Amino acid sequence: MAASAIAVQNIQKSYGNVHALRGIDLEVEKGTILGLLGPNGAGKTTLVRILTTLLQPSGGSAWVESFNVVKDAAYVRQLIGLAGQYAAVDENLTGRENLIMVGKLYHQTLREAAARAHELLVQFGLEDAADRRLKTYSGGMRRRLDLAASLVNKPPVLFLDEPTTGLDPGSRLALWKIIRDLVRDGTTVLLTTQYMEEADHLADRIIVIDKGKIVGSGTPAELKRMVGGDVLEIHLVDPSRTADAAIALRSLENGAIEIDAEQGILRMPVEDGTGTLPKAIRALDISHIAIVDLSLRRPTLDEAFLKLTGHRADMM
Amino acid sequence: MNKQLKRWNPWWTLTDLLTMVERNITGYRRVPQLLIFSTIQPVMFLLLFTYVFGGAIRTGGSSSYINYLLPGILAQSAVFGAIQTGVGLTVDLSRGLIDRFRSLPMARSAVLLGRTIADMLRNVFVILLMLLVGYLIGFRLEGTISDAVSAIAILLLFGFAFSWVSACIGMVVKNTETAQVAGFIWVFPLVFASAVFVPVESMPDWLQHFAKWNPVTITVNVVRALLLDSSSAQDTATYAWEALAWIAVILIVFMPLAIWLYRKSE
Ligand SMILES: Nc1ncnc2c1ncn2[C@@H]1O[C@H](COP(=O)(O)OP(=O)(O)O)[C@@H](O)[C@H]1O
Ligand SMILES: [Mg+2]
Protein backbone atom coordinates (compact mmCIF):
# COMPACT_ATOMS: atom_id res chain seq x y z
CA MET A 1 0.00 0.00 0.00
CA ALA A 2 2.90 2.34 0.73
CA ALA A 3 3.69 2.46 -2.96
CA SER A 4 0.20 3.47 -4.07
CA ALA A 5 -0.86 7.08 -4.29
CA ILE A 6 -4.45 6.06 -3.63
CA ALA A 7 -5.62 2.87 -1.96
CA VAL A 8 -9.25 1.99 -1.40
CA GLN A 9 -10.44 -1.04 0.53
CA ASN A 10 -14.03 -2.15 0.53
CA ILE A 11 -15.41 1.39 0.66
CA GLN A 12 -19.16 1.58 1.10
CA LYS A 13 -21.53 4.49 1.30
CA SER A 14 -25.26 4.51 1.85
CA TYR A 15 -27.63 7.45 1.92
CA GLY A 16 -30.56 5.93 3.78
CA ASN A 17 -31.60 3.00 1.56
CA VAL A 18 -29.64 4.26 -1.41
CA HIS A 19 -26.45 2.23 -1.60
CA ALA A 20 -24.27 4.57 -3.59
CA LEU A 21 -21.11 2.46 -3.14
CA ARG A 22 -21.25 -1.27 -2.43
CA GLY A 23 -17.68 -2.18 -1.62
CA ILE A 24 -15.06 -0.61 -3.86
CA ASP A 25 -11.43 -1.75 -3.92
CA LEU A 26 -8.80 -0.06 -6.00
CA GLU A 27 -5.24 1.18 -6.05
CA VAL A 28 -3.66 3.90 -8.11
CA GLU A 29 0.05 3.76 -8.72
CA LYS A 30 1.97 6.99 -8.28
CA GLY A 31 2.30 9.10 -11.39
CA THR A 32 -0.51 7.39 -13.32
CA ILE A 33 -4.03 8.32 -14.34
CA LEU A 34 -6.90 6.15 -13.25
CA GLY A 35 -10.09 6.69 -15.20
CA LEU A 36 -13.22 5.96 -13.22
CA LEU A 37 -15.80 5.34 -15.86
CA GLY A 38 -19.48 4.99 -15.18
CA PRO A 39 -22.93 6.28 -16.09
CA ASN A 40 -24.81 8.95 -14.18
CA GLY A 41 -25.55 7.76 -10.65
CA ALA A 42 -22.86 5.05 -10.69
CA GLY A 43 -21.26 6.48 -7.55
CA LYS A 44 -18.25 8.27 -9.06
CA THR A 45 -18.78 11.56 -7.25
CA THR A 46 -19.49 9.76 -4.00
CA LEU A 47 -16.14 7.98 -4.20
CA VAL A 48 -14.31 11.19 -5.06
CA ARG A 49 -15.98 12.99 -2.14
CA ILE A 50 -14.90 10.26 0.24
CA LEU A 51 -11.32 10.34 -1.01
CA THR A 52 -11.18 14.14 -0.75
CA THR A 53 -12.43 14.06 2.90
CA LEU A 54 -15.76 15.71 2.09
CA LEU A 55 -17.78 12.66 2.98
CA GLN A 56 -17.46 9.92 5.60
CA PRO A 57 -17.69 6.39 4.23
CA SER A 58 -20.27 4.05 5.79
CA GLY A 59 -17.68 1.28 5.75
CA GLY A 60 -14.20 0.38 4.55
CA SER A 61 -11.00 2.41 4.50
CA ALA A 62 -9.07 4.55 2.08
CA TRP A 63 -5.64 6.13 1.98
CA VAL A 64 -4.13 8.95 -0.02
CA GLU A 65 -0.32 8.92 -0.01
CA SER A 66 -0.63 6.48 2.92
CA PHE A 67 -2.74 8.87 5.01
CA ASN A 68 -6.14 7.62 6.08
CA VAL A 69 -8.81 9.86 4.57
CA VAL A 70 -10.89 9.83 7.76
CA LYS A 71 -8.33 9.82 10.57
CA ASP A 72 -5.63 11.90 8.88
CA ALA A 73 -7.96 14.19 6.94
CA ALA A 74 -5.95 17.29 7.88
CA TYR A 75 -2.87 15.85 6.16
CA VAL A 76 -4.77 14.42 3.23
CA ARG A 77 -6.13 17.92 2.53
CA GLN A 78 -2.58 19.20 2.11
CA LEU A 79 -1.82 16.51 -0.45
CA ILE A 80 -4.81 16.68 -2.75
CA GLY A 81 -6.31 18.96 -5.32
CA LEU A 82 -9.97 18.72 -6.25
CA ALA A 83 -11.71 20.04 -9.32
CA GLY A 84 -15.34 19.10 -9.52
CA GLN A 85 -18.03 19.01 -12.10
CA TYR A 86 -18.90 22.65 -11.37
CA ALA A 87 -16.28 25.37 -11.36
CA ALA A 88 -15.91 26.14 -7.65
CA VAL A 89 -14.75 29.70 -7.92
CA ASP A 90 -15.92 33.00 -6.46
CA GLU A 91 -17.83 34.98 -9.07
CA ASN A 92 -17.19 38.32 -7.41
CA LEU A 93 -13.42 38.00 -7.34
CA THR A 94 -10.97 38.21 -10.21
CA GLY A 95 -9.10 35.13 -11.40
CA ARG A 96 -5.98 36.24 -9.57
CA GLU A 97 -7.85 37.02 -6.36
CA ASN A 98 -9.44 33.58 -6.44
CA LEU A 99 -6.07 31.86 -6.65
CA ILE A 100 -4.49 34.07 -3.99
CA MET A 101 -7.39 33.38 -1.65
CA VAL A 102 -6.90 29.64 -2.06
CA GLY A 103 -3.13 30.05 -1.51
CA LYS A 104 -3.76 31.93 1.71
CA LEU A 105 -6.09 29.16 2.87
CA TYR A 106 -3.19 26.73 2.28
CA HIS A 107 -1.27 29.06 4.63
CA GLN A 108 1.15 30.30 2.06
CA THR A 109 2.53 33.77 2.67
CA LEU A 110 0.95 36.50 0.59
CA ARG A 111 4.13 36.68 -1.48
CA GLU A 112 4.12 32.91 -2.12
CA ALA A 113 0.42 32.93 -2.92
CA ALA A 114 0.78 35.83 -5.36
CA ALA A 115 3.78 34.22 -7.09
CA ARG A 116 2.01 30.87 -7.42
CA ALA A 117 -1.16 32.56 -8.69
CA HIS A 118 0.83 34.32 -11.37
CA GLU A 119 2.58 31.10 -12.38
CA LEU A 120 -0.74 29.27 -12.73
CA LEU A 121 -2.43 32.10 -14.63
CA VAL A 122 0.37 31.99 -17.18
CA GLN A 123 0.34 28.19 -17.36
CA PHE A 124 -3.40 28.13 -17.98
CA GLY A 125 -3.45 30.95 -20.49
CA LEU A 126 -5.47 33.21 -18.21
CA GLU A 127 -2.90 35.96 -17.92
CA ASP A 128 -4.91 38.47 -19.93
CA ALA A 129 -8.07 37.80 -17.95
CA ALA A 130 -6.27 37.58 -14.60
CA ASP A 131 -7.58 40.84 -13.22
CA ARG A 132 -11.06 40.59 -14.63
CA ARG A 133 -13.93 39.45 -12.51
CA LEU A 134 -15.16 35.92 -13.14
CA LYS A 135 -18.50 37.17 -14.37
CA THR A 136 -16.74 37.92 -17.67
CA TYR A 137 -15.18 34.43 -18.00
CA SER A 138 -16.42 31.78 -20.41
CA GLY A 139 -17.27 28.28 -19.22
CA GLY A 140 -13.93 26.95 -20.43
CA MET A 141 -12.02 29.74 -18.68
CA ARG A 142 -13.83 29.08 -15.42
CA ARG A 143 -13.03 25.39 -15.61
CA ARG A 144 -9.39 26.18 -16.26
CA LEU A 145 -9.31 28.55 -13.31
CA ASP A 146 -10.97 25.89 -11.18
CA LEU A 147 -8.30 23.40 -12.18
CA ALA A 148 -5.64 26.04 -11.48
CA ALA A 149 -7.14 26.57 -8.02
CA SER A 150 -6.85 22.85 -7.34
CA LEU A 151 -3.12 23.03 -8.17
CA VAL A 152 -2.24 25.99 -5.95
CA ASN A 153 -0.52 23.78 -3.37
CA LYS A 154 1.21 21.60 -6.03
CA PRO A 155 -0.67 18.51 -4.86
CA PRO A 156 0.87 15.12 -5.61
CA VAL A 157 -2.63 13.66 -6.03
CA LEU A 158 -5.32 15.29 -8.09
CA PHE A 159 -9.01 14.37 -8.21
CA LEU A 160 -10.97 15.46 -11.25
CA ASP A 161 -14.69 14.78 -11.18
CA GLU A 162 -16.00 14.94 -14.75
CA PRO A 163 -13.61 17.79 -15.56
CA THR A 164 -14.79 18.26 -19.13
CA THR A 165 -18.54 17.68 -18.82
CA GLY A 166 -20.32 20.53 -20.55
CA LEU A 167 -17.21 21.91 -22.24
CA ASP A 168 -16.89 22.57 -25.95
CA PRO A 169 -14.49 20.28 -27.87
CA GLY A 170 -11.75 22.92 -28.05
CA SER A 171 -11.73 23.53 -24.30
CA ARG A 172 -11.86 19.80 -23.72
CA LEU A 173 -8.74 19.20 -25.78
CA ALA A 174 -6.95 22.04 -23.97
CA LEU A 175 -7.82 20.51 -20.62
CA TRP A 176 -6.70 17.05 -21.73
CA LYS A 177 -3.31 18.46 -22.62
CA ILE A 178 -2.97 20.14 -19.23
CA ILE A 179 -3.85 16.90 -17.47
CA ARG A 180 -1.32 14.91 -19.50
CA ASP A 181 1.37 17.48 -18.74
CA LEU A 182 0.65 17.25 -15.03
CA VAL A 183 1.00 13.48 -15.05
CA ARG A 184 4.21 13.73 -17.03
CA ASP A 185 5.54 15.87 -14.18
CA GLY A 186 4.69 13.19 -11.64
CA THR A 187 1.16 13.99 -10.45
CA THR A 188 -1.20 11.09 -9.79
CA VAL A 189 -4.68 11.67 -11.17
CA LEU A 190 -8.00 10.03 -10.45
CA LEU A 191 -10.41 11.18 -13.11
CA THR A 192 -14.08 10.35 -13.39
CA THR A 193 -15.86 10.55 -16.67
CA GLN A 194 -18.91 9.43 -18.56
CA TYR A 195 -17.03 9.68 -21.83
CA MET A 196 -15.32 6.57 -23.19
CA GLU A 197 -13.26 8.70 -25.45
CA GLU A 198 -11.88 10.68 -22.53
CA ALA A 199 -10.97 7.59 -20.53
CA ASP A 200 -9.48 5.97 -23.62
CA HIS A 201 -7.46 9.07 -24.35
CA LEU A 202 -6.14 9.91 -20.89
CA ALA A 203 -6.23 6.93 -18.57
CA ASP A 204 -3.44 4.43 -17.95
CA ARG A 205 -5.97 2.19 -16.30
CA ILE A 206 -9.73 2.27 -16.34
CA ILE A 207 -12.14 1.06 -13.71
CA VAL A 208 -15.70 0.68 -14.86
CA ILE A 209 -18.22 1.26 -12.12
CA ASP A 210 -21.95 0.77 -12.25
CA LYS A 211 -24.54 0.99 -9.47
CA GLY A 212 -21.84 1.33 -6.82
CA LYS A 213 -19.81 -1.72 -7.86
CA ILE A 214 -16.73 -2.25 -9.96
CA VAL A 215 -17.77 -4.25 -13.01
CA GLY A 216 -14.49 -4.28 -14.90
CA SER A 217 -10.98 -2.92 -14.95
CA GLY A 218 -7.84 -2.90 -17.02
CA THR A 219 -5.95 -0.80 -19.50
CA PRO A 220 -8.04 0.66 -22.31
CA ALA A 221 -6.59 -2.01 -24.65
CA GLU A 222 -7.42 -4.83 -22.26
CA LEU A 223 -10.99 -3.67 -21.87
CA LYS A 224 -11.45 -3.53 -25.61
CA ARG A 225 -9.99 -6.98 -25.97
CA MET A 226 -12.59 -8.30 -23.53
CA VAL A 227 -15.23 -7.71 -26.15
CA GLY A 228 -13.13 -9.53 -28.75
CA GLY A 229 -10.33 -8.54 -31.11
CA ASP A 230 -10.56 -6.94 -34.50
CA VAL A 231 -12.96 -8.33 -37.04
CA LEU A 232 -12.44 -8.21 -40.80
CA GLU A 233 -15.67 -8.05 -42.74
CA ILE A 234 -15.52 -8.94 -46.44
CA HIS A 235 -18.35 -8.48 -48.87
CA LEU A 236 -17.95 -10.54 -52.08
CA VAL A 237 -19.26 -9.66 -55.53
CA ASP A 238 -20.34 -13.25 -56.11
CA PRO A 239 -22.05 -14.83 -53.07
CA SER A 240 -21.47 -18.35 -54.47
CA ARG A 241 -17.74 -17.98 -53.83
CA THR A 242 -17.86 -17.58 -50.04
CA ALA A 243 -16.48 -21.12 -49.53
CA ASP A 244 -13.54 -20.40 -51.88
CA ALA A 245 -12.86 -17.15 -50.03
CA ALA A 246 -12.86 -18.93 -46.69
CA ILE A 247 -10.26 -21.38 -47.98
CA ALA A 248 -8.11 -18.57 -49.39
CA LEU A 249 -8.17 -16.70 -46.09
CA ARG A 250 -7.66 -19.74 -43.83
CA SER A 251 -4.06 -18.88 -42.92
CA LEU A 252 -5.06 -15.44 -41.65
CA GLU A 253 -7.96 -16.33 -39.43
CA ASN A 254 -7.86 -16.16 -35.65
CA GLY A 255 -11.04 -17.98 -34.69
CA ALA A 256 -13.92 -19.34 -36.67
CA ILE A 257 -14.93 -17.44 -39.81
CA GLU A 258 -18.57 -16.57 -39.83
CA ILE A 259 -20.06 -17.03 -43.29
CA ASP A 260 -23.22 -15.51 -44.67
CA ALA A 261 -23.45 -17.34 -48.00
CA GLU A 262 -26.70 -15.67 -49.03
CA GLN A 263 -25.31 -12.14 -48.78
CA GLY A 264 -21.79 -13.14 -49.71
CA ILE A 265 -20.31 -11.80 -46.48
CA LEU A 266 -17.49 -13.27 -44.41
CA ARG A 267 -16.68 -12.12 -40.87
CA MET A 268 -13.24 -13.15 -39.74
CA PRO A 269 -11.70 -12.50 -36.32
CA VAL A 270 -8.06 -11.48 -36.77
CA GLU A 271 -5.13 -10.93 -34.45
CA ASP A 272 -3.84 -7.68 -35.86
CA GLY A 273 -6.39 -5.88 -37.99
CA THR A 274 -4.21 -3.36 -39.81
CA GLY A 275 -1.51 -5.95 -40.53
CA THR A 276 -3.99 -8.51 -41.86
CA LEU A 277 -5.87 -6.16 -44.14
CA PRO A 278 -3.37 -6.08 -47.06
CA LYS A 279 -2.68 -9.81 -46.73
CA ALA A 280 -6.38 -10.57 -47.02
CA ILE A 281 -6.67 -8.44 -50.13
CA ARG A 282 -3.68 -10.19 -51.71
CA ALA A 283 -4.97 -13.69 -50.82
CA LEU A 284 -8.35 -12.95 -52.41
CA ASP A 285 -6.69 -11.40 -55.45
CA ILE A 286 -4.57 -14.51 -56.04
CA SER A 287 -7.72 -16.65 -55.96
CA HIS A 288 -9.46 -14.19 -58.34
CA ILE A 289 -12.25 -13.43 -55.89
CA ALA A 290 -13.71 -9.97 -56.46
CA ILE A 291 -14.86 -7.93 -53.47
CA VAL A 292 -17.43 -5.16 -53.12
CA ASP A 293 -16.28 -3.96 -49.78
CA LEU A 294 -13.80 -4.82 -47.10
CA SER A 295 -13.81 -3.26 -43.67
CA LEU A 296 -12.04 -3.59 -40.38
CA ARG A 297 -14.17 -3.29 -37.30
CA ARG A 298 -12.32 -2.53 -34.07
CA PRO A 299 -14.08 -2.89 -30.71
CA THR A 300 -14.70 0.35 -28.85
CA LEU A 301 -14.79 1.05 -25.14
CA ASP A 302 -18.47 1.65 -25.65
CA GLU A 303 -18.89 -1.99 -26.53
CA ALA A 304 -16.76 -3.02 -23.57
CA PHE A 305 -18.98 -0.91 -21.39
CA LEU A 306 -22.13 -2.36 -22.86
CA LYS A 307 -20.86 -5.86 -22.27
CA LEU A 308 -19.79 -5.10 -18.67
CA THR A 309 -22.88 -3.30 -17.52
CA GLY A 310 -25.59 -4.51 -19.85
CA HIS A 311 -26.50 -0.96 -20.78
CA ARG A 312 -24.99 1.94 -22.62
CA ALA A 313 -22.79 4.45 -20.85
CA ASP A 314 -24.84 7.48 -21.70
CA MET A 315 -28.03 5.98 -20.36
CA MET A 316 -29.14 5.95 -16.75
CA MET B 1 6.98 14.02 -4.87
CA ASN B 2 7.89 14.63 -1.28
CA LYS B 3 5.84 17.33 0.28
CA GLN B 4 6.53 19.12 3.49
CA LEU B 5 3.38 18.68 5.55
CA LYS B 6 2.43 21.54 7.83
CA ARG B 7 1.32 21.01 11.40
CA TRP B 8 -1.73 22.96 12.45
CA ASN B 9 -0.89 26.39 13.79
CA PRO B 10 -3.68 27.83 16.02
CA TRP B 11 -2.94 31.28 14.61
CA TRP B 12 -4.41 30.08 11.31
CA THR B 13 -7.87 30.02 12.87
CA LEU B 14 -7.67 33.81 12.82
CA THR B 15 -5.90 34.28 9.47
CA ASP B 16 -8.36 31.94 7.73
CA LEU B 17 -11.23 33.88 9.27
CA LEU B 18 -9.77 37.16 7.99
CA THR B 19 -9.34 35.68 4.52
CA MET B 20 -12.98 34.65 4.48
CA VAL B 21 -14.24 37.98 5.85
CA GLU B 22 -12.22 39.80 3.22
CA ARG B 23 -13.63 37.60 0.50
CA ASN B 24 -17.22 38.24 1.56
CA ILE B 25 -16.71 41.97 2.01
CA THR B 26 -15.14 42.17 -1.45
CA GLY B 27 -18.30 40.55 -2.76
CA TYR B 28 -20.46 43.19 -1.09
CA ARG B 29 -18.24 45.99 -2.42
CA ARG B 30 -18.31 44.62 -5.96
CA VAL B 31 -22.01 43.85 -6.06
CA PRO B 32 -23.56 47.03 -4.72
CA GLN B 33 -27.02 45.66 -5.57
CA LEU B 34 -26.75 43.60 -2.40
CA LEU B 35 -26.05 46.68 -0.30
CA ILE B 36 -28.69 48.67 -2.07
CA PHE B 37 -31.18 45.87 -1.62
CA SER B 38 -30.54 45.79 2.10
CA THR B 39 -30.86 49.58 2.48
CA ILE B 40 -33.59 50.52 0.02
CA GLN B 41 -36.19 48.40 1.73
CA PRO B 42 -35.75 49.96 5.20
CA VAL B 43 -35.55 53.42 3.63
CA MET B 44 -38.87 52.79 1.89
CA PHE B 45 -40.43 51.61 5.13
CA LEU B 46 -39.07 54.69 6.81
CA LEU B 47 -40.58 57.04 4.24
CA LEU B 48 -43.84 55.12 3.98
CA PHE B 49 -44.49 55.05 7.70
CA THR B 50 -43.26 58.57 8.34
CA TYR B 51 -45.30 60.26 5.63
CA VAL B 52 -48.21 57.93 4.88
CA PHE B 53 -49.18 56.02 8.04
CA GLY B 54 -47.33 58.08 10.62
CA GLY B 55 -50.05 60.67 11.01
CA ALA B 56 -52.56 57.99 11.98
CA ILE B 57 -50.34 56.18 14.47
CA ARG B 58 -50.43 57.22 18.09
CA THR B 59 -47.33 56.16 19.98
CA GLY B 60 -48.24 57.78 23.25
CA GLY B 61 -44.84 59.36 23.70
CA SER B 62 -43.80 62.97 23.53
CA SER B 63 -41.39 62.39 20.61
CA SER B 64 -42.26 62.78 16.96
CA TYR B 65 -43.24 59.62 15.07
CA ILE B 66 -39.97 59.60 13.12
CA ASN B 67 -38.10 59.49 16.43
CA TYR B 68 -40.30 56.58 17.53
CA LEU B 69 -39.95 54.80 14.20
CA LEU B 70 -36.25 54.99 13.42
CA PRO B 71 -35.03 52.68 16.23
CA GLY B 72 -37.62 50.16 15.05
CA ILE B 73 -36.47 50.44 11.44
CA LEU B 74 -32.87 49.88 12.53
CA ALA B 75 -33.83 46.62 14.21
CA GLN B 76 -35.91 45.67 11.18
CA SER B 77 -33.01 46.21 8.79
CA ALA B 78 -30.75 44.12 11.03
CA VAL B 79 -33.18 41.20 10.79
CA PHE B 80 -33.85 41.64 7.07
CA GLY B 81 -30.10 41.81 6.52
CA ALA B 82 -29.67 38.50 8.32
CA ILE B 83 -31.67 36.78 5.57
CA GLN B 84 -28.72 37.47 3.27
CA THR B 85 -26.45 35.28 5.40
CA GLY B 86 -28.37 32.14 4.55
CA VAL B 87 -28.91 33.21 0.96
CA GLY B 88 -25.18 33.85 0.50
CA LEU B 89 -24.35 30.42 1.92
CA THR B 90 -26.70 28.69 -0.50
CA VAL B 91 -24.97 30.49 -3.38
CA ASP B 92 -21.59 29.19 -2.16
CA LEU B 93 -23.06 25.72 -1.68
CA SER B 94 -24.57 25.50 -5.14
CA ARG B 95 -21.41 26.85 -6.80
CA GLY B 96 -19.36 24.11 -5.11
CA LEU B 97 -17.33 26.70 -3.22
CA ILE B 98 -18.21 25.17 0.13
CA ASP B 99 -16.87 21.84 -1.16
CA ARG B 100 -13.66 23.53 -2.18
CA PHE B 101 -13.28 25.14 1.25
CA ARG B 102 -14.01 21.84 2.98
CA SER B 103 -11.32 20.14 0.91
CA LEU B 104 -8.71 22.72 1.98
CA PRO B 105 -6.60 22.41 5.13
CA MET B 106 -8.24 25.55 6.54
CA ALA B 107 -10.01 26.25 9.84
CA ARG B 108 -13.47 24.66 9.81
CA SER B 109 -14.95 27.64 11.65
CA ALA B 110 -13.78 30.22 9.11
CA VAL B 111 -16.46 29.72 6.45
CA LEU B 112 -19.51 30.37 8.65
CA LEU B 113 -17.88 32.93 10.92
CA GLY B 114 -16.38 34.70 7.93
CA ARG B 115 -19.83 35.06 6.47
CA THR B 116 -21.64 36.14 9.66
CA ILE B 117 -18.92 38.63 10.61
CA ALA B 118 -18.87 40.10 7.10
CA ASP B 119 -22.64 40.48 7.36
CA MET B 120 -22.19 42.24 10.68
CA LEU B 121 -19.75 44.68 9.08
CA ARG B 122 -22.23 45.26 6.31
CA ASN B 123 -24.77 46.11 9.01
CA VAL B 124 -22.47 48.85 10.34
CA PHE B 125 -22.79 50.49 6.96
CA VAL B 126 -26.55 49.96 6.77
CA ILE B 127 -27.17 51.33 10.27
CA LEU B 128 -25.07 54.45 9.69
CA LEU B 129 -26.82 55.06 6.40
CA MET B 130 -30.24 54.65 8.01
CA LEU B 131 -29.30 57.09 10.75
CA LEU B 132 -28.27 59.58 8.09
CA VAL B 133 -31.48 59.19 6.11
CA GLY B 134 -33.45 59.41 9.36
CA TYR B 135 -31.66 62.60 10.28
CA LEU B 136 -32.50 64.13 6.92
CA ILE B 137 -36.22 63.53 7.45
CA GLY B 138 -36.35 64.80 10.98
CA PHE B 139 -34.94 62.22 13.38
CA ARG B 140 -33.12 63.82 16.32
CA LEU B 141 -30.97 61.91 18.79
CA GLU B 142 -32.15 62.58 22.34
CA GLY B 143 -29.67 60.39 24.21
CA THR B 144 -25.91 60.80 24.50
CA ILE B 145 -23.40 59.73 21.87
CA SER B 146 -22.20 56.88 24.07
CA ASP B 147 -25.82 55.70 24.41
CA ALA B 148 -26.05 55.75 20.62
CA VAL B 149 -22.87 53.69 20.33
CA SER B 150 -24.29 51.15 22.79
CA ALA B 151 -27.49 51.01 20.78
CA ILE B 152 -25.54 50.34 17.58
CA ALA B 153 -23.52 47.63 19.33
CA ILE B 154 -26.68 45.88 20.49
CA LEU B 155 -28.18 46.12 17.00
CA LEU B 156 -25.04 44.58 15.50
CA LEU B 157 -25.05 41.71 17.99
CA PHE B 158 -28.75 41.23 17.35
CA GLY B 159 -28.18 41.03 13.57
CA PHE B 160 -25.22 38.71 14.15
CA ALA B 161 -27.39 36.34 16.21
CA PHE B 162 -30.07 36.23 13.52
CA SER B 163 -27.40 35.60 10.90
CA TRP B 164 -26.82 32.24 12.55
CA VAL B 165 -30.53 31.39 12.40
CA SER B 166 -30.40 32.29 8.74
CA ALA B 167 -27.22 30.23 8.23
CA CYS B 168 -29.06 27.17 9.58
CA ILE B 169 -31.93 27.75 7.18
CA GLY B 170 -29.47 28.13 4.30
CA MET B 171 -27.67 24.89 5.17
CA VAL B 172 -30.97 23.02 5.41
CA VAL B 173 -32.80 24.29 2.33
CA LYS B 174 -29.62 24.55 0.18
CA ASN B 175 -31.51 26.23 -2.65
CA THR B 176 -31.08 29.99 -3.04
CA GLU B 177 -34.65 30.90 -3.95
CA THR B 178 -36.03 28.74 -1.17
CA ALA B 179 -33.68 30.39 1.32
CA GLN B 180 -34.92 33.79 0.18
CA VAL B 181 -38.58 32.85 0.60
CA ALA B 182 -37.99 30.92 3.83
CA GLY B 183 -36.14 33.97 5.16
CA PHE B 184 -39.14 36.23 4.74
CA ILE B 185 -41.47 33.67 6.24
CA TRP B 186 -39.74 33.69 9.62
CA VAL B 187 -38.76 37.33 9.52
CA PHE B 188 -42.17 38.82 8.70
CA PRO B 189 -44.07 37.88 11.87
CA LEU B 190 -41.06 38.84 13.96
CA VAL B 191 -40.85 42.28 12.41
CA PHE B 192 -44.53 43.14 12.11
CA ALA B 193 -45.84 41.62 15.34
CA SER B 194 -43.40 43.79 17.23
CA ALA B 195 -42.91 47.31 18.50
CA VAL B 196 -41.13 48.36 15.30
CA PHE B 197 -44.03 50.44 13.93
CA VAL B 198 -46.62 50.67 16.68
CA PRO B 199 -46.73 50.23 20.45
CA VAL B 200 -47.45 46.64 21.51
CA GLU B 201 -50.31 47.92 23.70
CA SER B 202 -52.24 48.88 20.58
CA MET B 203 -52.43 45.21 19.47
CA PRO B 204 -55.16 42.68 20.37
CA ASP B 205 -54.48 40.75 23.59
CA TRP B 206 -53.57 37.45 21.98
CA LEU B 207 -50.97 39.14 19.80
CA GLN B 208 -49.57 41.17 22.65
CA HIS B 209 -48.29 38.02 24.36
CA PHE B 210 -46.17 37.21 21.36
CA ALA B 211 -45.23 40.78 20.54
CA LYS B 212 -44.11 41.65 24.05
CA TRP B 213 -41.53 38.85 24.23
CA ASN B 214 -40.60 38.95 20.58
CA PRO B 215 -36.81 39.50 20.45
CA VAL B 216 -37.35 42.25 17.90
CA THR B 217 -39.57 44.16 20.36
CA ILE B 218 -37.07 43.66 23.16
CA THR B 219 -34.27 44.98 20.98
CA VAL B 220 -36.35 47.90 19.78
CA ASN B 221 -37.14 48.73 23.43
CA VAL B 222 -33.52 49.08 24.37
CA VAL B 223 -32.52 50.91 21.19
CA ARG B 224 -35.39 53.34 21.66
CA ALA B 225 -34.54 53.87 25.30
CA LEU B 226 -30.91 54.60 24.39
CA LEU B 227 -31.48 56.82 21.36
CA LEU B 228 -34.46 58.73 22.75
CA ASP B 229 -33.53 58.85 26.41
CA SER B 230 -37.21 57.98 26.96
CA SER B 231 -36.91 55.57 29.90
CA SER B 232 -35.43 55.64 33.34
CA ALA B 233 -31.87 54.37 33.63
CA GLN B 234 -33.21 51.32 35.45
CA ASP B 235 -35.71 50.46 32.72
CA THR B 236 -33.06 50.93 30.08
CA ALA B 237 -30.75 48.54 31.92
CA THR B 238 -33.56 45.97 32.20
CA TYR B 239 -34.29 46.24 28.48
CA ALA B 240 -30.59 45.86 27.74
CA TRP B 241 -30.31 42.69 29.82
CA GLU B 242 -33.41 41.24 28.21
CA ALA B 243 -32.02 41.99 24.76
CA LEU B 244 -28.61 40.51 25.56
CA ALA B 245 -30.27 37.44 27.05
CA TRP B 246 -32.24 36.91 23.83
CA ILE B 247 -29.09 37.36 21.76
CA ALA B 248 -27.25 34.86 23.96
CA VAL B 249 -30.05 32.30 23.72
CA ILE B 250 -30.22 32.60 19.94
CA LEU B 251 -26.46 32.25 19.61
CA ILE B 252 -26.26 29.31 22.02
CA VAL B 253 -28.89 27.42 20.05
CA PHE B 254 -28.15 28.36 16.47
CA MET B 255 -24.37 28.73 16.36
CA PRO B 256 -23.65 25.09 17.27
CA LEU B 257 -26.57 23.98 15.10
CA ALA B 258 -25.19 25.85 12.07
CA ILE B 259 -21.69 24.46 12.66
CA TRP B 260 -23.09 20.96 13.00
CA LEU B 261 -25.10 21.38 9.78
CA TYR B 262 -21.98 22.68 8.02
CA ARG B 263 -19.85 19.75 9.17
CA LYS B 264 -22.34 17.15 8.12
CA SER B 265 -23.32 18.90 4.90
CA GLU B 266 -22.58 16.20 2.40
N1 LIG C 1 -26.71 13.40 -0.75
C1 LIG C 1 -27.32 12.34 -1.29
N2 LIG C 1 -28.43 11.84 -0.73
C2 LIG C 1 -29.04 10.76 -1.25
N3 LIG C 1 -28.61 10.08 -2.33
C3 LIG C 1 -27.51 10.52 -2.94
C4 LIG C 1 -26.80 11.67 -2.46
N4 LIG C 1 -25.73 11.86 -3.27
C5 LIG C 1 -25.77 10.89 -4.21
N5 LIG C 1 -26.83 10.08 -4.01
C6 LIG C 1 -27.18 8.90 -4.81
O1 LIG C 1 -26.06 8.05 -4.84
C7 LIG C 1 -25.90 7.48 -6.12
C8 LIG C 1 -24.53 7.80 -6.66
O2 LIG C 1 -24.45 9.19 -6.93
P1 LIG C 1 -23.13 9.87 -7.48
O3 LIG C 1 -21.97 9.44 -6.67
O4 LIG C 1 -23.40 11.33 -7.56
O5 LIG C 1 -23.01 9.26 -8.94
P2 LIG C 1 -22.21 9.76 -10.22
O6 LIG C 1 -21.25 10.82 -9.77
O7 LIG C 1 -21.54 8.55 -10.74
O8 LIG C 1 -23.21 10.29 -11.17
C9 LIG C 1 -27.03 8.01 -6.97
O9 LIG C 1 -28.07 7.06 -6.95
C10 LIG C 1 -27.45 9.25 -6.26
O10 LIG C 1 -28.81 9.52 -6.46
MG1 LIG D 1 -21.05 12.82 -10.48
From TrEMBL, chain A:
Keywords linked to the UniProt accession: ATP-binding, Cell membrane, Membrane, Nucleotide-binding, Translocase, Transport
Keyword Membrane: yes
Pfam families in the record: ABC_tran (PF00005), DrrA1-3_C (PF13732)
One Gene Ontology CC term in the entry: plasma membrane
PROSITE patterns in alphabetical order: ABC_TRANSPORTER_1, ABC_TRANSPORTER_2
Family per record: Belongs to the ABC transporter superfamily. Drug exporter-1 (DrugE1) (TC 3.A.1.105) family.
Protein name: Daunorubicin/doxorubicin resistance ABC transporter ATP-binding protein DrrA
UniProtKB/TrEMBL annotation, chain B:
Any Gene Ontology CC annotation: ATP-binding cassette (ABC) transporter complex
Protein family per UniProt: Belongs to the ABC-2 integral membrane protein family.
Species of origin: Candidatus Kaiserbacteria bacterium RIFCSPHIGHO2_01_FULL_54_36
Keyword Transport among UniProt keywords: yes
PANTHER family xrefs: NODULATION PROTEIN J (PTHR43229)
Record-level Gene Ontology MF annotations: ABC-type transporter activity
Membrane topology: Multi-pass membrane protein
Protein name: Transport permease protein
Chief location of this protein within or outside the cell: membrane
Domain annotation ABC transmembrane type-2: ranges: 33-265
Name of one Pfam family that matches: ABC2_membrane
Record keywords: Cell membrane, Membrane, Transmembrane, Transmembrane helix, Transport
Subcellular location: Cell membrane; Membrane
Keyword Membrane: yes
Lineage: superkingdom: Bacteria
Chain segments annotated as transmembrane: 34-53, 65-91, 112-137, 149-169, 181-200, 243-262
